[in-house]
Specification:
DUF2922 domain-containing protein, DUF2922
């Protein structure tokens, strides 16, 4: 069994669809866009969009 590889995309479009994500991942795998440590990627396992809220506070006294 091979190792899992994660690909992170910073600031994806807010309206990106599940189908667009699937299509992009298939293109990456099919065209061997990435070869981590010389190994080809062979299948798509999962995708997720992580949203983070940041609240800044002015703590200057």
């Amino acid at each position: 069994a091979g190792n899992k590889v994660s690909l992170t995309v910073a600031d994806p479009r807010s309206d990106v669809t599940e189908q667009e994500i699937k299509d992009a991942m298939e293109v990456i795998v099919t065209n061997n866009v990435f070869a981590p440590n010389g190994s080809e990627l062979v299948e798509v396992l999962e995708a997720r969009v992580v949203k983070t809220d940041t609240t800044d506070y002015d703590l200057e006294v």
